[in-house]
Amino acid sequence: MQYCEDIITGIDGSEATFVRYVLDNSEEIDPKRQRPSVLVIPGGGYAMTSDREAEPIAMQFLAAGCNAFVLRYSVAPSVFPTALLEAAEAVQRIRAHADDWHCDPSKIAVIGFSAGGHLATTAGDDTMRAHGYDPDAVRPNALMLGYPVITSGPLAHRGSFDCLLGDNSDNQVALDAVSIERHIDAKTPPVFVWHTITDDCVPVENTLMLVDACKKAGVPVEAHLFPQGGHGLALGTAETAWQGVNGIEPCVQQWPVLANAWLRRLFA
């Protein structure tokens, strides 16, 4: 397996870390295999990026036969669109190095958690064009989201938008521009999303708004709502629990199986 950490320099001079876990091809099995890729975008309220939603998630998809990448994007004091452009660069690098990294450039999924789910879902076409990216060229082929921050409205996780927008966090035009449910359209990739009903940090209505927007736009969506559990559960196991204790939630532990099954069907 190839393991490497690269730097993506943000438009404000900050540095994001782009980590790749690329499975080797075997002469004994299939020397020309091209695998699906999963880009993992951890959460952290745009104030940090969580370890619990980074490498442990990548390992789940590696085990399922995908190449995995992790983006530790720039957070506050960096503001929009710094992280968005770093995510675009990450997808562009995967496609540009598809041959070297044994990736199928038409099978790239992005999985984001909490604020990372917001980042994964932010299209920002006009912003990307203004910074030299072709939105169609850096758009992933699938989106997977765990307890995502979606709306900047009354049910927003306000801290995420305060960090994302900085001095513009009270500007309604800026808030509307990054309220995901307002910008789902026919170009949005198919979506897999999960949330817990009892999330007391990012209300489950965020996911319900996303599902409703996808339905109205004709975007395929698979949603799983689990009956209990707080925010930031990651895998819901001891592997990703806070201090190894808080965040063990058996009812959500099946989501990686469900997500991988969905991805296999989509990329069949």
What features would you highlight for this structure?
268 residues, alpha/beta, 8-stranded mixed beta sheet, single chain
Q: Could you give the topology of this structure?
A:
Elements: E1 2-9, E2 15-22, E3 35-41, H1 55-63, E4 67-72, H2 82-96, E5 103-113, H3 115-121, H4 125-130, H5 135-138, E6 142-146, H6 158-165, H7 172-177, E7 191-196, H8 205-217, E8 221-226, H9 255-266
Parallel strand pairs: 3-4, 3-5, 5-6, 6-7, 7-8
Antiparallel strand pairs: 1-2, 2-4
**Which geometry do the CA atoms define?**
globular
Which structural class fits the helix and strand makeup?
A: alpha/beta
Let me know the largest β-sheet.
8 strands, mixed
- Helix/strand order, N-terminal first: EEEHEHEHHHEHHEHEH
Helix share bin = 25-40%
Query: What ranges have pLDDT less than 50 throughout 5 or more consecutive residues?
Result: none
Beta-strand share of residues:
15-25%
Please give the count of helices: 9
Distance between the termini: 24 Å
Number of strands: 8
Walk me through the structure.
The protein is α/β, with parallel strands linked by helices and 268 residues long. It is 30% helix and 21% strand. It contains nine helices and eight strands. It has helices at residues 55-63, 82-96, 115-121, 125-130, 135-138, 158-165, 172-177, 205-217, 255-266; strands at residues 2-9, 15-22, 35-41, 67-72, 103-113, 142-146, 191-196, 221-226. The chain has an eight-stranded mixed beta sheet, with helices on both faces. Strand 7, helix 8 and strand 8 (221-226) form a beta-alpha-beta unit. The longest helix is centred in the first third of the chain and has 15 residues, at 82-96. The radius of gyration is 17 Å and the shape is globular. It starts with a strand and ends with a helix. The model has no long low-confidence stretch (mean pLDDT 97).
